């Protein structure tokens, strides 16, 4: 079993910054992609940013140039630095990881519990 624990959400004014962190723990052999998704009220969950074990990154267009995703493979952590925040960034942010567990041949997807990010105008 694998657990993802997020931290770093909160309330910030427009133009401010927040840093989200996520730590994976459990019976981990390796982690392929890690990422951050978000879900605003009444909207579908969307991919914000992702990063492979090799460091390749992907961002949704609306956050390019403002958000930066990074990971520490040795510590099984992923972070999302969010700058120049806008009210439309308000959402619950979820950590996601594609994990190969010890003793298993396949990859499984895990989610964190979510952390609220609120940007006031």
Biggest pleated-sheet summary: 7 strands, mixed
Molecular shape: elongated
The helix content is under 10%
What is the percentage of strand-forming residues?
over 45%
Would you tell me the structural class of the helices and strands?
A: mainly beta
End-to-end separation = 40 Å
Q: Please tell me the overall pLDDT.
A: 96
Q: In terms of per-residue confidence, which ranges show pLDDT below 50 for 5 or more consecutive residues? A: none
Query: Would you list the SSEs in sequence order as H and E?
Result: EEEEEEEEEEE
Rg result? 14 Å
What's the total number of strands? 11
Number of helices, where a helix is a run of at least 4 consecutive DSSP H or I residues = 0
Detailed description of the structure:
- There is one protein chain.
- With 121 residues, this protein is an all-beta fold.
- The chain has no helices and eleven strands.
- It has strands at 2-7, 10-13, 18-26, 28-39, 46-51, 57-59, 67-72, 77-82, 91-101, 107-111, 115-120.
- The relative contact order is 0.33.
Keywords:
seven-stranded mixed beta sheet; mainly beta; elongated; 121 residues
A few lines on this structure:
The protein is an all-beta fold and 121 residues long. It is 0% helix and 61% strand.
List the helices and strands and how they pair.
Layout: E1 2-7, E2 10-13, E3 18-26, E4 28-39, E5 46-51, E6 57-59, E7 67-72, E8 77-82, E9 91-101, E10 107-111, E11 115-120
Parallel strand pairs: 2-11
Antiparallel strand pairs: 1-3, 3-8, 4-5, 4-9, 5-6, 7-8, 9-10, 9-11
